């Protein structure tokens, strides 16, 4: 499964300045926005400005491999605005399907647990502690490669 992540960082006083291409007078307001702009704009409605002079907007769109469209792929992710923000992606291992294990369940549960634990005091903004606690809370069989940034 491929994941397209749209990042747009901007030094601004207000969140709409993060999206000059969407809001500029040069764009045709009657035409549909391009997908990446629409995704970034949709993500912005849920993004809080942490500091007035800077904002970071994230939008995602997951595209499963053509052979995995009916199952939806094996990847999962979460984005949180907690204390400056956390972005995490879990790439599930498709080889588990050979053992009749759904390879999407482990990364989905792992990311759901990590998302719930992001504000845990024991985590102390440490991605290693967060992923360890999320793994300990995960009961699904499987494995995943995880990338987490905060």
UniProtKB/TrEMBL annotation:
Origin: domain of life: Eukaryota
Keywords from the named record: Hydrolase, Magnesium, Manganese, Metal-binding, Protein phosphatase
Family: Belongs to the PP2C family.
Protein name, entry field: Protein phosphatase
Cofactor(s) the record lists: Mg(2+); Mn(2+)
UniProt keyword annotation of Metal-binding present: yes
EC number: 3.1.3.16
Cellular component terms per the entry's GO annotation: chloroplast
One term of GO molecular function: protein serine/threonine phosphatase activity
Native source species: Salix viminalis
Keyword Iron-sulfur part of the UniProt annotation: no
Catalyses which reaction(s): O-phospho-L-threonyl-[protein] + H2O = L-threonyl-[protein] + phosphate; O-phospho-L-seryl-[protein] + H2O = L-seryl-[protein] + phosphate
UniProt cross-references to SUPFAM superfamilies, sorted A to Z: PP2C-like
Enzyme class per UniProt: hydrolase
């Amino acid at each position: 499964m491929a994941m397209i992540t749209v990042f747009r960082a901007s030094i601004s006083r207000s969140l709409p300045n993060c999206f000059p291409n969407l809001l500029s007078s040069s764009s045709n307001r009657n035409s549909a926005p391009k997908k990446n702009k629409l995704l970034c704009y949709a993500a912005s409605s849920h993004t809080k400005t942490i500091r007035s002079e800077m904002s970071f907007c994230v939008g995602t769109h997951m595209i499963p491999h053509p052979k995995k469209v009916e199952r939806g792929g094996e990847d999962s992710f979460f984005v949180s605005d907690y204390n400056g923000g956390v972005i995490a992606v879990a790439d599930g291992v498709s080889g588990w399907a050979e053992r009749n294990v759904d390879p999407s369940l482990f990364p989905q549960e792992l990311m759901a647990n990590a998302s719930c634990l992001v504000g845990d005091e024991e985590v102390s903004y440490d991605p290693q502690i967060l992923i360890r606690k999320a793994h300990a809370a995960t009961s699904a069989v499987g494995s995943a490669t995880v990338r987490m940034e905060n």
